[in-house]
Amino acid sequence: MATTIRRTTPKYAAHALMEELNESRPFGWLGAVVTFGAVCVMIGVYWDISWHMTIGRDTFWTPAHLLIQAGGLIAGLSSGYVAIRTTFGGSVGAHDASVTFWGFKAPLGAWVAIWGCFAMVASAPFDNWWHDAYGLDVRIISPPHMVLAMGIAGVGIGALLLTLAAQNRGSAQARGAMWLFLIAGSLLLMDRAIMLTEYSWKNLMHDGAFYRVSALAYPMVLVLMARASRMKWAATTTTGIFMGLMLALMWIIQLFPATPKLGPIYQNITHMVAMDFPVLIVVPAIGIDLVMQRLTLRPLLLALVLSVVFVALFVAVQWPFASFLMSPAARNWFFNAENFVYWMPARGVENARTWQYEANGLFFAAQLGSAVAIGAFSSWVGLWFGTWMTRVRR
Questions:
Q1: Which residues contact 64 (CB under 8 A, 6 or more apart)?
Q2: What is the pLDDT of residues 229-248, one digit of tens each?
Q3: Burial of 20 by CB count in 10 Å (0-12 exposed, 13-18 middle, 19+ buried)?
Q4: Rounded distance, CA 327 to CA 338, Å?
Q5: From CA 228, how far away is CA 386, in angstroms rounded?
Q6: Helix (H) or strand (E) holding 20
Q7: What is this structure's pTM?
Q8: How far is the C-alpha of 3 from the C-alpha of 9, rounded, in Å?
Q9: Is the pLDDT at 7 greater than 50, yes or no?
Q10: Quick check: helix, strand or coil at residue 109?
Q11: Measured between alpha carbons, how far is 53 from 253 in angstroms, rounded to an integer?
């Protein structure tokens, strides 16, 4: 009789409810933790680039580097913990929501995040060696940075998969997982925008090459988000989060005083130099959401329509905005059009204020045609992966 009474007490009922919830959504906190780690990584990347633009090559132990690696470790170690608990624990729900790798069990996103963490940690001594062997580098794309970029992509994709699985399972946490999924998607956009920095200077935005690389990088993510998310305006919301994060970093980082430590110093830098104003992909994202909501076509034809919409809207908004950024009206804190690095001589400043390529006529039309073809491929990949992602449950 005493046992029966204990089992019906509120304390036991609450404990039973928690066990039931844990079985229905095992390790539900992992998606949020890995997403937080990915946010730390991307903020650290932005901060590190600003550090190089302002102060120059510094010790590995800068706050920006530490934030990048801390974000990777947060994602990797928390995923590793879940892998160990799932493998050796007795939770049936955790086993059902996992995949097996080398005899260990964990959610798919956890394995991707673990791999990303390993790549990020491995890139650190490689990057140090690279600088010691070849001196100062001022380029974003270099062999050690590409290893780091692959690791960062692993952490970001891990966050996408973990939050997506929670969304698709339709558990009690699904609504929060939907928003975390959009945040993870915005970080993927941020990663691509940063990697394209050297192809996206404002004085290159009147040339077809800029629109070709943009068509390769962005439609894939936007279409994937629109297809995989259960929110109606997923692509638009994702780009809104992306732009909000980029603008917040751009505006805030300029408030901190800083001076260069390496020579030659050609610019009188007195504060942290921020990256350029982000590209206005929120406008073509609205078009992609509308197309995805209203048209039901075969994947190849839909990909072509999505690419035409993306390129047309992106050119329509980015071309005139680039003209504005090149004008004196944009040379202020808000639009950040005069963000010269300390090693830029007077000739470099003059070049930055001059159109390097300004295509027009039939040649530019041909370049946009190739951008549409590239964008169709990118959109098709986004459709394929987005459709696959709708089936991810673990």
A1: 44, 45, 47, 48, 50, 51
A2: 989 899 999 999 999 999 99
A3: exposed
A4: 10
A5: 5
A6: helix 10-24
A7: 0.86
A8: 10
A9: no
A10: helix
A11: 12
